Amino acid sequence: MIPILNIENFNQQISAKNYFYSNHLDVHLKNNVHHFDKPHKHDFYLCVFVIEGEGVHEIDFNNYDIKPGRVFFLKPGQTHYWSFSSEVKGYIFFHTFEFFSLSMNELQLNEFPFYTLKKSYLDLSPNNIQYFIEAFKNINDEFHSNQIFKRASLLSLVNLIYINFLRTFNQKSIPEQSQSVNDLVIVEKLYDLITTHFKHEKRATFYAEQLHITVRHLNRITKKVLGKTFTQLLHEMIVLEAKRLLVHTREQLTTIAEELGFQDYANFSKFFKNKTTESPTSFRKRY
Question: Helices in 113-264 by DSSP H: which ranges?
Fold first, then answer.
């Protein structure tokens, strides 16, 4: 199975509560070389700022270029790994859901589109890069300090950098595509519901009832925020989980089909081929 890493896997050498972690990117990669080049998941929110270096970052079977000025975002459950073609420099921090959400912040994690929409990265303009270098440095310095009120300070610094990411994101978005906070919250809840129930429940009515909205409203929101219908979103998430199981486990194809809620392998194979143009066997061998 795909390993799921938590903050303790990276934070054992530091005498601090395991709710937050920060480091220089090159130091982090050197200390955790046994983790980053193999597919894995996290149970925390992760933010990486690349200042120098190149390579490829694969997130849920999508490849993204690693390049200066790019910030990557991952939420719990996403599968990823890094492949570098040159030495990299930058910063990395990650934190638990509780660290940010159990505070008195006006904003919550599900209101930040760079996590909710699974956009995965944000490119900073040359005018903004120096500000974010200083912001990441302040977070890293605070984390490695022994000052009182350290947690409160970290929370304030992270909240501030997220707000500035949000401003940058909105500046790059087309005005008509800007999303209301309520719509983003509903989409985030929908992702969680599908992740929990899709193996046994594929009816739009079920998810609409859980969200206390109509199916028509559900489709209107997914179309507005994601540009796709509920059914398209559901099928994408099933295909993604199928790919994870095909590539990162040794389970039999019939077992995978059963785990995904299909009555038999033939139905699963037909569905997978319809969505990806290749059979599960072919995808597993090719990948």
Answer: 113-116, 126-143, 150-172, 181-197, 204-211, 215-226, 230-248, 253-259
**Which of 39-48, 107-116, 202-211 shows the lowest per-residue confidence on average (mean pLDDT)?**
107-116
Residue span of the structural domain in which 206 resides: 181-286
The count of structural domains within the chain is: 2
Residues 211 and 229 in one domain: yes
Say whether pTM exceeds 0.85: no
How far is it, in rounded angstroms, from Cα 268 to Cα 114? Answer: 32
Q: Which long-range contacts (CB under 8 A, 24 or more apart) does 59-64 make?
A: 59/120, 60/118, 60/240, 60/244, 61/240, 61/243, 62/120, 64/120, 64/121
Q: Hey, which residues does 66 pair with through a beta bridge? A: 55
Cβ 87 vs Cβ 96: under 8 Å: no
* Whole-number Å distance between alpha carbons of 241 and 197: 13
Structure tokens at 83: 């492949």
Cα dihedral across residues 102, 105, 106, 111: positive or negative: negative
> Do 127 and 191 sit in the same domain of this protein?
no
Q: What is the pLDDT of residues 261-271, one digit of tens each?
A: 998 899 999 99
d(CA 67, CA 203): 41
Residues 6 or more apart in contact with residue 212 via CB below 8 angstroms: none
pLDDT, one tens digit per residue, over 78-105 is: 888 888 999 999 999 999 888 887 666 6
